[in-house]
Amino acid sequence: MSLPDILPIPPFTSPLRGSVDVPGSKSLTNRALLLAALCDRPLTLTGALFSEDTHLMAEALRRLGFTVTAEPDAHRVTVSGQADAFRAPAAELFVGLAGTAARFLTALCAAAPAGIYRIDGVPQMRKRPMRPLIEALRTLGADIRCPGEEGFFPLEIHARGLRGGEVAIDAHESSQLLSALLMVAPLATAPVRVRLVGPVRWPFVKMTTRLMERFGQPGITTEGADTFAVAAGVPYRAEGPSYPMEPDATAASYFLALPLVTGGTLALPQLHTELQGDAEFLDVLRDVGLQSDTAGYHYQAGAPRHGVTRDFSGFSDTFLTLAAIAPLLAGPTHISGIAHTRKQETDRVAGMANELRRLGQDVVETEDALTINPRPLRAGETIETYGDHRFAMSFGILGCHDLHGDGRSWLSIRNPACCAKTFPHFFELLEQVRQKSSAP
Predict the structure, then answer these.
(1) Distance CA 318, CA 325 (A)
(2) Which of 317, 319, 312, 338 is nearest to 423 (CA)?
(3) Which of these three, 169, 194, 228, is where a domain ends?
(4) Burial of residue 168 (number of CB atoms within 10 Å: 0-12, 13-18, 19+)
(5) Model confidence at 73: pLDDT above 90
(6) Which residues partner with 357 through β-bridges?
C-alpha cells in the first residue's frame, strides 16, 4: 500500500467488527537476531517482524559476515554462518534510527575478537543516548572511539574482545543500554558483574534476561536490587532449529484502543505475551473502560469511558496511544514516568503536547508528565509525526472517531509512511478493518 505525504483518516461509520493479527515483536525480533548470531548453529525465527528496524539489524549482521535469510511472506528469518562471522578486517554498519540495532550492534562489535567496525545512523540517531554503554564497554576492555561528539554516534570500534570484571552503567535514559551489555557479557573472558546506577525500565530488562535463559544462558543472578552477575564461558544455544516470536504488544496497543474510539468489538486471536512488559497497557485500557471475553480474544468498549492516572515508566512506548484518545474520555488523563521519551525518535512528550493542542485540547506539560483535559476536538488539522511511527499510528486511531457523525474525514496524518519503522502495513490493516465493519 503506497501512502501519500498527507493521509486523511476515514472515520468508522459503523461499530467495529472483525479481527486483527498483530505482527511479531520488534523488541524480541532484534534481540533474538543478536542471540541467534551468537549461537553455534543455524536458527530460524518464526513469526518474526519485518520492518525498517529489523531490516537494519539483519543487514548489519550480514555485513559482519553472518548469513541472514529472510522469508517475509512466511514471517521467517534464518541466521546461519556463525563460523564465518568477523572474518573481514573491517565493516561499516548503518543503523538508521533503530535504537535496538544501534545499542545491540555496538555491544556485539565491541565483543568481537578482532576487526574495525564503524557504526552510524541518521542525524537524529546521533542525538540518542550512547555514552553509558560506551563507557561500560570501555571498562570491560573495549576500544571505542567517537570521531564526532564524545559519547554519541558515529562510533569506530577496534575490536579485541571483552575481559570481564566489574562495571557500572546508568540506563535510566534507555534500558537498551543495559540489555546490550548483558547480552554480550557471556562472551567476556571472565565473569561480569554489572552494577546498575539509577532507575531502569525493568520490563525490558527482564525480557532480555529471560530470552538469554531461553538461549542457553544460566539464570542471570542478581545481587541485591542493583547488581547482575553473568557467568563467562557458557555458549549461546537454541533448544531446536526454530524459535517463535510473540506478537508485538506495543503494536497491539493501537488496535486494543480502537473499540474505545469506534464502539463495536475487535478480535485479536493471536495476542499472547509472556515476555513483553508493554502488555501492561491492557490493564490501563481496562481502567479506561475496555472489556474483554474470558478468553481475552474479543475486546469492546464499556461505558463510561473515563480518563485515568497512570505511571508509564515501565511501558512508555504505549503512552502515546492513551494520550491520543484522551480527548474522547470523560475527565482528565494524567500520564507520568515519561521523561526519558524526550530522547527517543523525537521529544515525544513535547510532540504529543503540541499535537493535542493543535486539536484544541488543554494540555499541561511537565518534564515527566502530561495532563490532558478534554475539550471539543478541532477538525481540519494535519498531525505532525516528527518522523516518529508512534505518532502516526496513535493519531491514526483517534482519526477513526466519527467526529461529524457522517463519515467525513476530520484529521490527517503527515508522513504516515514513517510507521514502516515497526509496523509497515498498519494503515492498510486499519482500512481493512474499517471496510469490514462497514460491510452489510
Answers:
(1) 12
(2) 317
(3) 228
(4) middle
(5) yes
(6) none
Q: Are residues 13 and 32 in the same domain?
A: no
> Which range marks the domain in which residue 308 is found?
6-23+247-438
293 pLDDT band, cuts 50/70/90, is: confident
146 within 8 A of 134, measured Cβ to Cβ:
yes
> What single letter denotes the amino acid at residue 158?
H
Residue 335: strand pairing partners: 310, 370
Could you tell me the CA-to-CA distances from 396 to 41, 135, 305 in Å, in that order? 42, 40, 19
Peptide bond just before 154 cis, omega within 30 deg = yes
Q: How far is CA 69 from the centre of its chain?
A: 23
Residues 19 and 35 in one domain: no
Residue where a domain stops, chosen among 228, 262, 277:
228
To the nearest whole number, what is the mean pLDDT of the chain?
96
Q: Do 258 and 392 share a domain, yes or no?
A: yes
Helix (H, G, I), strand (E, B) or coil at 306: strand
Q: Are residues 134 and 204 in the same domain?
A: yes
Total structural domains within the chain: 2
Q: Give me the CATH number covering residue 423.
A: 3.65.10.10
Closest CA to 176 of 252, 107, 225: 107
Least confident of 68-77, 134-143, 265-274: 265-274
Question: How does DSSP assign 70-112, residue by residue?
Answer: EEGGGTEEEEE-GGGTT-SSEEEEE-TT-HHHHHHHHHHHHHS
Residue 196 DSSP code: E
pLDDT of 221 over the 90 cut: no
Judge contact between 280 and 250, C-beta under 8 A.
no
Q: Are residues 19 and 105 in the same domain?
A: no
Does residue 237 form part of some domain?
no
DSSP, collapsed to helix, strand or coil, labels residue 178 as: helix
Q: Is the residue at 17 inside a domain?
A: yes
Catalytic residue set: 317
Instruction: At 222, list the grid cell.
Output: 542478581
Residue that is written with C-alpha cell 544455544 in the block: 237
Inform me whether the pLDDT recorded for 90 exceeds 70: yes
Q: Is residue 164 part of a domain?
A: yes
Query: How far apart (Å, rounded) are the C-alpha atoms in residues 56 and 387?
Result: 17
Q: Does the residue 30 lie in any domain? A: yes
